[in-house]
Amino acid sequence: MTTIGTEGSGAHPRFADALRELGLDHLHGQIRRFPDATRTAAEAAAAIGCELSQICKSLIFAADRVPVLVLMDGASRVDVERVRQELGVEKVTRAKADVVRETTGYAIGGVPPFGHRTRTRVLADRSLLEHDVVWAAAGTPYTVFPMEPGALVAQAGATLVDVREQTS
Questions:
Q1: For site-directed labelling of 115, which of 28, 58, 65, 147 has its Cα 20 to 30 A away?
Q2: Distance (Å, rounded) from C-alpha 60 to C-alpha 71?
Q3: Report field, pTM of the whole predicted structure over 0.70
């Protein structure tokens, strides 16, 4: 694992621009780049050395065919029925890879929680707030950045919800 400064931080250029536009330049120096892709939450947690639940997954769903971003802790799964109820729509499905890229400007495995190509509705599961810091993708499967979860939710323009699958 390496930490790289502002120049060539490894973040996707769109995400780097978003950090500047949002006044979050200080995050450039905290972006970590890995030699191998961390496409899954488990791979990212292992590379960072944090708990799986400290990974913030950015997942795109289609709610009546309209893209919606769900931010979820890495140890949990999204309950699509709860998302459906939260949004008041008829059907929620996982978005296909081309829809994810078209909507966000990023490939699956590297989607950050904000700095997307288009504005979408964003839901954030409350489980993210259980940590002091969470780690999210910085626009590529090789890069992540740390952020206080409340600030991350605010920057993403997310609505706090309870949409994780309940385990018995």
A1: 65
A2: 9
A3: yes
